UniProtKB/TrEMBL annotation:
Pfam family, one: TPR_8
Gene3D superfamilies: Tetratricopeptide repeat domain (1.25.40.10)
Name under which the protein is recorded: Uncharacterized protein
TPR repeat copies, ranges: 121-154
Transcription found in the keyword field: no
Keyword presence, Transit peptide: no
Taxonomic source organism: Bacteroides oleiciplenus YIT 12058
Assigned keywords, A-Z: Membrane, TPR repeat, Transmembrane, Transmembrane helix
Transmembrane segment boundaries: 382-400
Stored SMART domains: TPR
Length: 439
């Protein structure tokens, strides 16, 4: 009996503690679920806030997106949104060196598989920019063309203008100026549809650069003046590059005084230290043309410490030419070696061919797809009309058979009626005959 009491007491104790454990476990599960849901809701809210301010306040967007905890735990749409917004935020904050091709590829794959044409096009655009940063120009061109194919199904005109602008850049760096000018003209068209006058100014500047490279100075000047006319704000920094272009056009036409005035005005208006070396390089070249070697050397010395390897290499190359003019061959050789060590000049013919081949292949594939679609639509129309004809024929045959069947039934009924009438007449005749015989 005492043993039984102890056993019951122990069992009651276990039951009570088991209930407590289950209660605590339930609280833990519910609490964990609430924390998880709360974190998910917070992340969604942060992503929406980033999306709303990234274009206008990119620094605020950067602070907000960094508040997202454990982004690697995001899934589905939230993960794709995070990848796209991170790429967009880094781009707007000029931190392209921190971009990740694997991250933006997450957004590309998700949005494309879910037929979100706008976000898929935007993701391809940023993927193209990442490829340019990695010097993978063929992949960049393919990404931009994919972006255009998706964005043409939307009304996002500004983004389409940006994509055409970047395609134009890829063609221009390969010296395919006719293609690049066409791309830039399309970018102006889409910027105009978007009501983006600054984008149109950039397009005019880019076209002017293309015409200047082709030595079509009148066309280049026309687009520069069009850009200036679209830019009433005289303090806007794009005005600096337009003034530089006017200086380069004047230099090509040997109007050196005007050229110097334009470049000096550009340098005075410029507020971007990174671009300063580019304008000094242009000014130094003008001074070299008029034999002002001391002033030219001073301008080139402004350029040799820049982080832009093309400009620094160009500055050393011009210093080499300058010292040759001064017959200081030892110093000229020194500058030549420095120029070659900074920039190894490689022929771009192969890469240019790849880009043109890719564009032609894309246009060919697009034409094939369009022809296939037209043939498919025609085949569908043929099948539809064939079905209608067969349906009409089938219905006609059915109603004809039905009509014939009905007529046959009527004829048979008439024959039966005639037989009945004949039988009645025959019976009546027999009755009358028998009556007459009896009489």
């Amino acid at each position: 009996m005492p043993f039984y009491a102890v056993f019951c007491s122990f069992a009651g104790y276990l039951t009570l503690n088991m209930k407590k454990c289950l209660f605590l476990f339930g609280l833990f599960v519910i609490g964990g679920g609430l924390v998880s849901c709360t974190r998910t809701d917070v992340n969604k809210k942060l992503l929406k806030q980033v999306e709303s301010c990234v274009e206008v306040y990119p620094d605020s967007a950067m602070r907000l997106i960094n508040l997202i905890e454990y982004p690697e735990h995001l899934h589905g749409k939230e993960r794709a949104d995070y990848a796209l917004l991170m790429a967009q935020t880094l781009d707007k904050n000029y931190l392209d060196s921190l971009q990740s091709d694997s991250l933006i590829k997450i957004a590309v794959d998700y949005y494309k598989s879910n037929n979100d044409f706008l976000k898929a096009g935007r993701a391809y655009y940023y993927y193209g920019k990442v490829m340019v940063a990695e010097d993978k120009l063929s992949e960049a061109m393919q990404a931009y063309l994919e972006a255009l194919d998706l964005l043409k199904k939307t009304n996002e005109y500004k983004l389409q203008g940006l994509v055409f602008e970047h395609i134009g850049y890829l063609n221009s760096v390969q010296g395919v100026y006719d293609f690049s000018i066409d791309n830039y003209q399309k970018s102006i068209h889409y910027y105009e549809l978007a009501g983006d006058s600054i984008g149109m100014v950039f397009g005019c500047r880019n076209i002017a650069r293309g015409y200047l490279a082709k030595q079509h100075n009148d066309s280049a000047r026309w687009y520069v003046n069009k850009g200036l006319a679209l830019l009433p704000d005289t303090t806007n920094q794009i005005r600096v590059s337009l003034l530089q272009l006017l200086g380069l056009i004047a230099k090509e036409e040997k109007q050196y005084s005007q050229a110097i005035d334009h470049i000096v005005a550009a340098i005075k208006l410029n507020k971007n230290v990174k671009n300063e070396s580019r304008y000094y390089l242009s000014l130094g070249r003008i001074y070299m043309d008029i034999g002002e070697f001391a002033l030219a050397e001073e301008c080139f010395m402004h350029c040799i410490c820049t982080n832009d390897i093309i400009i620094s290499s160009g500055a050393y190359s011009y210093l080499c030419l300058l010292k040759k003019e001064e017959r200081d061959y030892q110093q000229a050789l020194c500058y030549k070696e420095k120029s070659d060590s900074i920039l190894n000049i490689v022929s771009n013919d192969k890469l240019r061919s790849q880009l043109l081949t890719l564009q032609k292949k894309y246009e060919t594939d697009k034409l094939v797809m369009e022809n296939r679609q037209v043939r498919l639509e025609k085949a569908n129309q043929t099948y539809f009309y064939s079905f209608l004809v067969l349906l009409v024929i089938g219905l006609s045959i059915y109603f004809i058979k039905l009509y014939r069947k009905k007529n046959l039934r009527n004829i048979e009924a008439l024959k039966r009626n005639e037989k009945i009438i004949e039988g009645v007449y025959l019976q009546d005749y027999r009755v009358r005959t028998v009556g007459k015989a009896g009489a």
